[in-house]
Specification:
Layout: H1 19-36, E1 50-55, H2 61-72, E2 76-81, H3 93-101, E3 107-112, H4 117-122, E4 129-134, H5 140-154, E5 161-165, H6 172-183, E6 187-191, E7 207-209, H7 212-218, E8 221-224, H8 242-249, H9 253-257, E9 264-266, H10 279-282, H11 289-308
Parallel strand pairs: 1-2, 1-3, 3-4, 5-6, 5-8, 6-7, 8-9
Helix pairs in contact: 1-11, 2-11, 5-6, 5-11
């Protein structure tokens, strides 16, 4: 594999990427971000490529970011929503995708509620697959844009201390972030209620703490995760109440003032304002949340462009 190509034919998870792959994606994202600052924010790189966005789970930011990235590359885009499809009539995932591919689609971006759905699909179809989030498993492009945003602000990721706070157990963002950051040489710490941190997470070389204020003093950047209520069993109580959670693990201005240095404030969205983060912090000077959104388009342009180079025409 040359240094100008990814080592994998798909983007199923960060675990499949090498550190060289990640740096290659970042280099291309730097170039595409420059394109996005131009009056005409478009390049003809993929004008002969058709991409299908298959979203079997609700999404706003990720779906729009992928669609915008594809259109900035001049690709043709087909959007699929499970709620209005034959999936509701019992059609299988493979049949659904094969029907779409029969219409000469060259690449698939998929979000699915089932962990491993993208891997399963990649074993049954012969086009590049990009995982836009599969259950509680992975969300690779989110991890890449988070790491890219840290690199942009701090100059490097190697040696930096990154804190991930919240519902680690049910978050696909957390697992992908941990893997990506460690591959790039960062130290990673997670913080949250013991009921929301996987028992064996320490085996990944991650520091685990429950004292949020102490963790904030340690880190260079903090990524605040929301409570994944839609993925939790309704019969299980992971914490007494949202108010109790916010008091213990919510980031607000008073808590931030106690930190003796400037730290980057991040959030993958959607934000539950007043729960994991207050509005004054989310919109404050240390927040790079909107930078993450902007960088998401550049990162996804880079991933799509690099995987498109592998398509046999």
């Amino acid at each position: 594999m040359t240094k100008d190509q990814l080592s994998t034919p798909h983007l199923l998870g960060v675990k499949d990427l090498t550190s060289e792959d990640i740096e290659l994606i970042f280099r291309h994202a730097d170039e595409f971000k420059e394109v996005l600052q131009r009056p005409i924010k478009k390049v003809p790189s993929l004008r002969d490529i058709t991409i299908a966005n298959l979203f079997f789970e609700n999404s706003t930011r990720t779906r729009l970011s992928f669609e915008l990235a594809q259109k900035r590359l001049s690709a043709d885009v087909v959007n699929f929503s499970a709620s209005t499809s034959s999936v509701k009539k019992g059609e299988t995932l493979v049949d659904t995708v094969n029907n779409i591919l029969a219409m000469k689609v060259d690449m698939v971006v998929m979000r699915h509620a089932s962990p491993g759905a993208c891997l399963f699909l990649s074993q049954h179809v012969d086009v590049p697959i990009i995982n836009a989030g599969d259950g509680t498993h992975e969300h690779p492009t989110q991890a890449l844009l988070d790491a890219f945003s840290i690199r942009e602000k701090l100059g490097t990721i190697k040696g930096k201390k990154v804190l991930i706070v919240g519902d680690i157990t049910h978050s696909r963002v957390a697992l992908s972030n941990i893997d990506c950051l460690q591959k790039l040489g960062a130290e990673v710490m997670v913080c949250g209620p013991a009921t929301m941190i996987p028992k064996h997470l320490g085996l990944l070389g991650v520091k685990i703490v429950h004292d949020f204020d102490a963790a904030l003093q340690w880190c260079d950047a903090v990524n605040m995760l929301r409570i994944q209520l839609e993925r939790q069993e309704t019969s299980v109580r992971f914490f007494p109440s949202l108010r109790e959670y916010s008091l213990q693990y919510g980031l607000n201005a008073d808590r931030l003032k106690k930190v003796k240095k400037d730290i980057l404030i991040m959030h993958p969205g959607p934000i539950n304002r007043g729960v994991e983060i207050s509005s004054d912090v989310a919109d404050g000077e240390q927040s790079i949340i909107l930078d993450q959104v902007e960088n998401g388009v550049a990162i996804r342009m880079a991933v799509i462009y690099l995987l498109a180079q592998k398509i046999q025409r």
